[in-house]
């Protein structure tokens, strides 16, 4: 009761104060005049400051009123020096080389593919948004690595059609290696919009520009083993059903395959989708199990190891990055030209999908055994039921199609590949650096 009283007291004292000010106003006109003058003066100064700020800020590059750019971060690109860098990076340096735009070039697979193309004399231009899905400093380190080999990475979003058109104006790319994507199966429950933005809208934005380019490039792009979803027939073959995705990530990759079909059908774009199976290796992604298991084992933190119903084995067809790179290069080399021009189809064009796996699934528990041996540290295992967050229990690639048509032949087993990863990891994160993610 006494509390209530004091509350009411407060209100009354405030209104009393208000009355006092009001009376001061009515009896003191000259003071009122000076307040208005002061207010006008400061409003004027405020306006001037705002106007100066507005006119001095650099023009956003390019047109901000373009609806396709509304959701885009402002990247700095353009100008003669920038165009020179673009041209030089994309210049072919070997007799029968190709000129490739690599999207997602600061990503794990993108970095390795870009470096391999450059090494053999192809022209390579990178494009990457450097988003913070995982530690951007790792992406910057990969960028520095590529710069040393002569690959320039343009900073920008694949949804930015103005930028994409500009790139095709500057360089008549013969090929696009499209690896920019929102990856990760489990993160799709946290941020579904990012999957739609990158894997669907971004893909369409890229294909729109490719179909109008003259010449149209041939496109090789990253699909995923996750498109097999709840398919229980193993090993997974390209002929198997892919209409039961278990995650939004898988659904967007499957949608990508259908979108590819459409652009091939209507515009004569040559399109090859590669279904990657759990790619791992040096410079890898910190959101993937092998990577953060390594970090957490070294830190003495417990690691969650998933198991299926009735203690069923969860396993992956882990595929080493160098094998994947060979598959990507073979897909580029065997890609036929697109048949359209100026946005019009002139004849049927190539449309392909390949599994790129290792053909030997390994249980996640065995992955941990290998890491323990390599790191010489015992893992704190926290065995838990496979959460319902998009993971499937088992993947296993049938690679006979890729073997026949691309000459794809993986040669690195998990033990050998992880040894290379651990060596890189320890080197990279020594000197006080910590893995993010
Ligand atoms: O082939 C693909 O298309 C995809 O491969 C990759 O997905 P996944 O195969 O799910 O890899 P990854 O997360 O490393 O989990 C590996 C294993 O560890 C298990 N796992 C995972 C996390 C955990 O905390 N515990 C655990 O046991 C987990 O159940 C799984 O069995 C890419 O991330 C994805 O972008 C996509 O490219």
UniProtKB/TrEMBL annotation:
Regions that span the bilayer: 36-55
EC number of the protein: 5.1.3.6
Record membrane topology: Multi-pass membrane protein
InterPro entries on file: Epimerase_deHydtase, NAD(P)-bd_dom_sf
Protein name: UDP-glucuronate 4-epimerase
Subcellular localization: Golgi apparatus, Golgi stack membrane
Pfam family, one: Epimerase
Family listed: Belongs to the NAD(P)-dependent epimerase/dehydratase family.
PANTHER family, sorted: EPIMERASE-RELATED
Organism: Rubroshorea leprosula
Subunit and interaction comment: Homodimer.
One GO MF term: UDP-glucuronate 4-epimerase activity
NAD-dependent epimerase/dehydratase domain ranges (all copies): 100-337
Catalytic activity: UDP-alpha-D-glucuronate = UDP-alpha-D-galacturonate
Keywords of the record: Carbohydrate metabolism, Golgi apparatus, Isomerase, Membrane, NAD, Transmembrane, Transmembrane helix
Gene3D superfamilies per UniProt: NAD(P)-binding Rossmann-like Domain
Gene Ontology terms: cellular component: Golgi cisterna membrane
């Amino acid at each position: 009761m006494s509390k209530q009283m004091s509350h009411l007291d407060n209100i009354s004292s405030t209104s009393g104060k208000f009355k006092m000010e009001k009376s001061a106003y009515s009896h003191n006109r000259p003071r009122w005049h000076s307040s208005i003058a002061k207010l006008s003066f400061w409003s004027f100064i405020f306006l001037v400051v705002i106007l100066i700020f507005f006119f001095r800020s650099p023009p956003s590059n390019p047109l901000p009123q373009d609806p396709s750019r509304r959701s885009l971060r402002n990247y700095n690109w353009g100008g003669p020096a920038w165009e020179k860098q673009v041209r030089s990076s994309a210049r072919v340096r070997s007799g029968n080389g190709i000129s490739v735009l690599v999207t997602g070039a600061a990503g794990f697979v993108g970095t390795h593919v870009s470096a391999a193309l450059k090494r053999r004399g192809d022209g390579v231009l990178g494009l990457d948004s450097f988003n913070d899905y995982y530690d951007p400093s790792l992406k910057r380190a990969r960028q520095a690595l590529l710069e040393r080999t002569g690959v320039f990475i343009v900073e920008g979003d694949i949804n930015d059609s103005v930028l994409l058109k500009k790139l095709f104006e500057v360089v008549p790319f013969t090929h696009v290696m499209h690896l920019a994507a929102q990856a990760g199966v489990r993160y799709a429950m946290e941020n579904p919009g990012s999957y739609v933005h990158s894997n669907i809208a971004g893909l369409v934005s890229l294909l729109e520009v490719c179909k109008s380019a003259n010449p149209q490039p041939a496109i090789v792009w990253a699909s995923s083993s996750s498109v097999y979803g709840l398919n229980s027939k193993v090993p997974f073959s390209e002929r198997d059903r892919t209409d039961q995705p278990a995650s939004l990530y898988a659904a967007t990759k499957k949608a990508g395959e259908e979108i590819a079909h459409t652009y091939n059908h209507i515009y004569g774009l040559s399109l090859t989708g590669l279904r990657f199976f759990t790619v791992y290796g040096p410079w890898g992604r910190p959101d993937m199990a092998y990577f953060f298991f390594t970090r957490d084992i070294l830190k003495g933190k417990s690691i969650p190891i998933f198991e299926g119903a009735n203690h069923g084995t969860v396993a992956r067809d882990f595929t080493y990055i160098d094998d994947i790179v060979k598959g990507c290069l073979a897909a580029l080399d065997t890609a036929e030209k697109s048949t359209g021009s100026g946005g019009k189809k002139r004849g049927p064009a190539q449309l392909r999908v390949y599994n790129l796996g290792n053909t030997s699934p390994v249980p996640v528990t065995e992955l941990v055994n290998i890491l323990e041996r390599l790191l010489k540290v015992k893992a704190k295992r926290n065995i838990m039921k496979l959460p319902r967050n998009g993971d499937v229990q088992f993947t296993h690639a049938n690679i006979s199609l890729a073997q026949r048509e691309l000459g794809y032949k993986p040669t690195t087993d998990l033990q050998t590949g992880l040894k290379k990863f651990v060596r890189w990891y320890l080197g990279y994160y020594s000197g006080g650096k910590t893995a993010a993610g």
